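As practice, study what follows.
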Amino acid sequence: MTQKNDDIFKLRSLAIEKKEARENLKEDISETKERLRPANLIQEAKDKALDRVQKTGETALQGVKDNPGKVASVAAAAALLALRKPLTNYFTNRKAANDGKNDANSEE
């Protein structure tokens, strides 16, 4: 008789576990469906991208704080490189203007 009662108890326990597992599975499926909606995926991607950009910015800022001399020299080199053509044109035009003045002065 005891064996029969133990079997009945085990079956009831298994039935309860089965019911709980089904309920948990239904909840998990509904949460997954909600998470996989396009709007939610887009928002999650935006949040992750924003976090990455913020971490990268913080790392870059810390690098600037740690190496201000290197950053200043790189910034100056980049500025000179970007302004190379305008500066060349400016000095060429200035030289041409001065040469024109010198030619006018030598004719007098």
Notes: The mean pLDDT is 87. Residues 2-35 form the longest helix (34 residues). The two ends are 135 Å apart (CA to CA).
